[in-house]
Write a structure and sequence with these properties.
Layout (H helix, E strand, L loop, with lengths): L3 E7 L4 H13 L7 E8 L4 E7 L2 E7 L7 E4 L10 E5 L5 E5 L4 E2 H14 L7 E4 L16
Length: 145
């Protein structure tokens, strides 16, 4: 099984065109398609990778090449810490990630639209820093060495 793939590379200041492109690609996903693999970047970085399984998904935010990045966390998740959700990638690979990373699809779509316009990670959701560089938010300025 393969995920439906959406890729958007933002190269200009006309963000409304990219919002429309994203909405069109999302609307063109086959109705029965449960899995969606989304990649959106601003001239390579920053970038957000998103995996969707039906009505839930999670996101990874990368600030620069080689960044371990940030991933979403649902602080309202009240299930078992060992629960996982399956996600198919566009190449057919099956991955499992903790269910506590997942947000509802509507939140994911709104976050992606905000990222298209601002180039920043939405601050109204919670992120976990995977890079161990001390940044509290994906939007913190980071010194690259």
């Amino acid at each position: 099984m393969n995920a439906y793939s959406i890729e958007i590379n933002i190269k200009s200041d006309s963000k409304s065109n990219y919002i429309k492109e994203f909405e069109d690609k999302l609307a063109n996903a086959p109705q029965a398609q449960r899995y969606i693999d989304i990649s959106i970047d601003h001239n390579s970085f920053p970038s957000i990778l998103t995996l969707i399984n039906d009505e839930y998904g999670w996101m990874l935010f990368f600030r620069y090449d080689g960044d371990a990045g940030f991933h979403t966390i649902n602080k309202n998740y009240d299930g078992n810490d060992f629960d996982v959700l399956e996600y198919y990638l566009s190449n057919g690979q099956l991955d499992e990630y903790p269910a506590k990373y997942a947000l509802n699809r509507r939140t994911i779509v709104n976050c992606l639209k905000e990222f298209i316009v601002t180039g920043k990670a939405p601050e109204y959701i919670d992120w976990i820093n995977d890079s161990s560089d001390g940044s509290k938010s994906p939007n913190d300025i980071v010194m690259q060495i």
